[in-house]
Amino acid sequence: MKTLYELEKASKQAHAQHQTKELMATINEQEILNQIAQLRIKHPVLGLKKLYHKVKPVNMGRDRFITLAMSANLGIEKAKNYRRTTYSTKSNRYRNLLEGLLIDDINQLWVSDITYFWVVDRFFYIVLIMDVYSRKIIGHYASALLVALANVGALKLALKTRKGQMLNQLIHHSDKGTQYVFSEYVQLLQDNNIQISMANTVYENSHSERLNGIIKNEYLSHRNIQTLQQLIKHLDRDVKLYNQDRPHWELNMMSPIEYEESLSKTPKCQRTKMSIYVDSNTVCNQKFANQLVLF
After folding, report:
1. pLDDT classification of 17: cutoffs 50, 70, 90
2. Which residue among 13, 72, 254, 288 has the highest number of C-beta atoms inside a 10 angstrom radius?
């Protein structure tokens, strides 16, 4: 039978061990919060599920990680968009070519769109071009005016980014904004044997719409931007950050650049084939319009 002294000694030891365990847990949580805070500087609005995959905390599940981050006010709030940037052409010269399309590599489908960004007391405009299969931003441009030359600048950068690569199977997809039928823009696409496709509804360019939100709401809105020059500087930096460091669920939590590098080691027969959304109603109307042209 144990003596009272032995019991008291055991009790003190257990208490000390418990306190040490709690202290270590607190230190571990603080270290995790510090890591989240550091990542928030680079990725201000990256989802907590994705941050969990970047931090990879030891002995902490995802739900506990999210609860911890939320308790420290390290969650995110979604922003809303209000500004119109698309002034469509009534021309039906370019159809939606994405019906039934399956892609399994880069340089098969590029998408582009224009979005606005409020700075101090006025709007500036941003053009982005993305390779859909890898989600990599290959062209971008910031401008003080909603003009077609900004789109030309983004396209020239995209062509420079993909210089030396095969583009003969590539489709360029956008909305029907007047900037995308600008003569110099169309000529650049045709000179590089790139097919031109245009959406009939906003839902048929959803990849671009989502990218706009990511760049503005996860990055630029959290920078101190007062001028166009500062916007250009931060856009360059944040596009690089997005391409190199932002994980994507659809890319097995790899960044776009990491995913493109992995493709070189993955035979096409083993790659995921990606389908693109097309509104069936507009496709029917488009086919009907094509038939009318024949008569």
Report:
1. low
2. 254
Are residues 123 and 207 both part of a single domain?
Answer: yes
Count of domains observed in the chain: 2
Whole-number Å distance between alpha carbons of 170 and 194: 5
User: How many whole angstroms separate alpha carbon 218 and alpha carbon 276?
Assistant: 25
Residue 80 has pLDDT above 60, yes or no: no
SS3 content of the chain, % helix, strand, coil (to 5): 50, 15, 35
Q: What is the pLDDT of residue 70?
A: 76
* Residue ranges making up the domain that contains 228: 102-272
What are 66's two structure tokens?
């999210």
Alpha-carbon span 26 to 34, nearest angstrom: 12
**Under a CB-based contact definition with an 8 Å cutoff, are residues 213 and 127 in contact?**
no
Q: How far apart are CA 111 and CA 134, in angstroms?
A: 12
The reported pLDDT for the residue numbered 291 is: 34
The DSSP call for residue 163 is T
Rg over CA atoms, the chain = 25
Let me know whether 116 and 213 are in one domain.
Answer: yes
C-beta separation of 50 from 56 below 8 A: no
Clarify whether residues 31 and 150 are in a common domain: no
One domain for residues 40 and 127:
no
Q: What percent of the chain has pLDDT over 90?
A: 52
116 shares its domain with 224: yes
Instruction: Quickly tell me which residue has 């405009």 as its tokens.
Output: 125
pTM reported for the whole predicted model: 0.74
